[in-house]
Design goal:
6-stranded parallel β-sheet; about 325 residues; 434 Repressor (Amino-terminal Domain); Rossmann fold; 3 domains; 13 helices; DNA-binding; about 45% helix; homodimer
Chain lengths: ~325, ~325
DNA sequence: CAAGCTATTGAAAGCATTTTCAAATAACTT
DNA sequence: AAGTTATTTGAAAATGCTTTCAATAGCTTG
């Protein structure tokens, strides 16, 4: 029942630990014949190197920590898929942590992260505060941020320029003569929502207009639905921009039940495209953002940092693509 | 830049390693005064125990491996949330692995799992083959399976009795005089789909009828859409049962575009309830399954196995709740 | 044939903990 | 005050690997 160690292999193959270690790690100094002897012993005993012991000896764990707010959004799944695929290629493991509201949770997570001696951490969260970042930095743990523009210059980040996307969209709509544009807050993605608002504001100001139509909404579906209904009392035309698919659906349902025709009266755009945007009727116009790539690229950046190929650019901005579907009449 | 170790703390506090170790682990033999001395040294130096070294010394990593097919389904997100919440409570870490089709991938994952010396593994996958299980067993790694009825009796599992759910549903519908019932295969959840079919068959046979209406469908949305359209050429009435929300949506869209009224002509039921089932119009009737609990319970079972409180029952069957919405006219 | 290389191998130290066992100290007892 | 017991502490071994440095063996070369 006892696990077989490198000692057992050494004894079986009649060589020293050092040699076995060399064989395991593919060192090329060991002679063909001994290599085979060792290989045979390994397969005979079913030996698997103990990654923990290796981690201790090498001072690296080939594990990276991933921090996400919650695992429940569709596109986070895609991010994770991208991350893990790349991790698998480079033989890294991923330790998953979810972070909830509140500073204590952030502290606790940073604590485990440090204790578990991961080689680096990838963060996708609005909730990761400056404090946590500096702590991590002080312990010299490499960080890659996903999907939020880096605040400190020293941070690596992979992101989508949300503000730009919305700025361009609003610009076009202002061009069409549509100036009643609202941006809905998504509590669970507050930073991103703010960036959307920022983009809208920029567009209006560039056109000599002012804008102040950021609608703050408690998080859940029902309340979105209610808040939007209220909004619709004063606004029967224009454009509403939401962040997540489920929010956009709440808007659609609310419109439908208030006799507002989409897209003829009111148009709706969702920022994050998911399969649900196309599965629903009317299909929701949205920006397809490369979620999978967001994950894949950030993991790749991380591996580069760790093998210390110098990372050329600290910030990688991935592109998006706007797709007009059935909830908009302008293109 | 060098990480502070237990030695540094010992020196700072003027005690031996053993004492520091005792303080860290909350042993109650150490005297109040020395405990304080040590605590002070720890905070002063910012010492964090090295979990890797602990893992080596203790022969346990307080890490459990999680294997899932892909992270892209909404309800898997919920499962993960449940898992992680409970893991956090019991101070376990979770290492995430996604498994794709193909035996080589399964082997590779089992290999990393063994090397990384996790204390146990939780598996949610149709693709985890017998082989992998036996390998894991031979290395004496505890396993908990999620959401698939255990095949071997020695396995712990937490699941939903899908067959029963569908059997009951079909029974009711046969009672209503509806016998044109189809079950759609979901390639990515083939086992579950088969269980649904199994339940349907049972219901029909119990009523002295035969049933053979399991529709095999290539995976993606478009092909579901096409296959269902074809099905609708011969079937204008009855019930269609899908597994995932996006599949059910494909059915709805296909029906709509073929002039079939839902629920008046054709009724649609989706097995796994997600928020999208209620966000869509018509709202999709479905079974709300406790995804979060599925994760939470299996992690709890795992912790029990590891603290070896004997786990009382190997199999935990969680309950589901059928909610009739707008895609069905019977209740 | 001695000297000098090179290709292989092994011994031992190091990585950061825990834990056992014995020693030291403290606290009682008589 | 000496003996006994209980409480605290520390030394050292153990956990399973990597890696440096030295040693050995096998060649080559002058």
């Amino acid at each position: 029942m006892k696990r077989v160690t490198i000692y057992d292999v050494a004894r079986e193959a009649n060589v020293s630990l050092a040699t076995v270690s060399r064989v395991i790690n593919g060192s090329d100094v060991v002679k063909e014949a001994t290599r085979n002897k060792v290989q045979d012993a390994i397969t005979k005993l079913g030996y698997k190197p103990n990654a923990i012991a290796q981690g201790l000896a090498l001072q690296r764990t080939t594990t990276i920590g991933l921090i996400i707010p919650e695992a429940s959004f569709t596109y986070i799944g895609q991010i994770i898929n991208g991350l893990l695929d790349v991790a698998k290629i480079y033989n890294y493991n991923v330790m998953l942590h979810t972070i909830t509201e509140g500073i204590t949770d952030a502290e606790k997570i940073v604590d485990v992260i440090i204790k578990s001696r991961v080689d680096g951490v990838i963060v996708y969260s609005d909730k990761m505060m400056e404090d946590s970042i500096t702590t991590l930095n002080s312990y010299n743990i490499p960080i890659v941020m996903i999907a939020n523009k880096a605040s400190g210059e020293s941070l690596c980040s992979v992101y989508i320029d949300i503000a730009k996307a919305i700025r361009e969209l609003c610009n076009r709509y202002i061009g069409y003569g549509v100036t009643d544009i609202a941006v809905l807050e998504d509590r669970k993605n507050r930073n991103s929502s703010r960036l959307m608002a920022h983009g809208a504001k920029q567009a209006f100001e560039a056109n000599g207009l002012s804008w102040n139509n950021y609608i703050e909404i408690p998080n859940e579906y029902r309340s979105t639905y209610r808040f939007v209904r209220k909004y619709f009392e004063d606004h029967r035309h224009g454009l509403v921009i939401a962040y997540r698919d489920s929010q956009a659906m709440a808007v659609l349902n609310s419109a439908r039940e208030n006799g507002i025709a989409v897209p003829d009266d009111m148009e709706v755009v969702c920022f994050v495209d998911t399969k649900y945007n196309s599965a629903v009727r009317p299909m929701i116009s949205s920006f397809s953002i490369p979620s999978y790539d967001l994950g894949a690229v950030s993991m790749r950046v991380m591996t580069k940092m760790l093998e210390n190929d110098r990372v050329t650019d600290k910030e990688k901005c991935l592109s998006y693509l706007y797709t007009a579907r059935q909830t908009t009449k302008h293109h």
